[in-house]
Amino acid sequence: MGLQEEALSEYRNGLTINEKLAAADHGNAQSQINLAVSLFSFAETGDATRVHLARSFEILRQLDGE
Length: 66
Prior knowledge:
Blueprint: H1 3-24, H2 29-43, H3 49-65
Helix pairs in contact: 1-2, 2-3
């Protein structure tokens, strides 16, 4: 596995962890922000960019409405 593949794997692992933490406590703003940042960072890799950006922005919009 090359460095780029390793980096993508680490992004995926981090995203999975942040998704689990955010799902465990929807009321925890920091967990939600961490997930939004992870989604945004993952989108920058070029992997499902629109999907990840849309999810990230939706989380931030929800937090803004609270």
